[in-house]
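Reviewers of the previous submission asked for a worked example of the structure-prediction workflow described in the proposal, so we include one complete record here. The input consisted solely of the amino acid sequence. No template or homolog information was supplied to the procedure at any stage.
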Amino acid sequence: MKRTLAFAGLVLGATLAVHAGAGPANPVGQGPGGALAPAESLAQRTPSEYRRLVEAVKRGDAGVDFVRLRASWAADPCVSTRTPDRSALVVALAARNWVKAAELAPRVLEDEFVNPDLHLATAEAYKALKQADSQQFHESVADKLLRAMLTTGDGTTTATADRVYSIREAFLIMRELGYPAPRQSFVATPQGRVDVLTGENEDKKIVSVFFNIDRAAGNRPPGVCIG
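From that input alone, the workflow returned the following structure tokens.
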């Protein structure tokens, strides 16, 4: 798969809402509206499926299903993409402050592990710091995430649309396919809204790709965040 890196100002700075529909996470121990979770639930604090899968990837578990990882992220009420560390990371990457970027990236990735562009930007920081193992890890994760995006449908019809969790992801897939800056439209179907991106590649070939955005991160289900 073609490797691309849209840099800090383009990828992170200009797209702070890559998955921003998620909104701020529910505070630990609170449900929708600030209601307290039951004490017995708080005592258990069982890690969510998303957290468990992230840890498995970090351990080098080759059996992790990245489609499931992405779905578990979309269903987790505790993740947040609006942390102070994220803004600081954008600044560090834009300034090519690789040491600071490498310090901040792991913390931001705790809640955005499904963001391939963020992994690629992190890999760039480790490359500059000559930390090859860390660089290769994040490049590998980014590649697996991109491939997972492309395995949820073939994108040729509304019935077989690729599933994405943000509009940004749809544009990212088009970029990877070689169709940058596509035109955007929408189609209403009985199953939900479908996003249609139409682009032209270097060979002047024009294609339209369908994306299922009905379960975009903005529609993240409410839930009680217990850690």
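The mean pLDDT is 80. We consider this example representative of the routine output the project will generate in years two and three.
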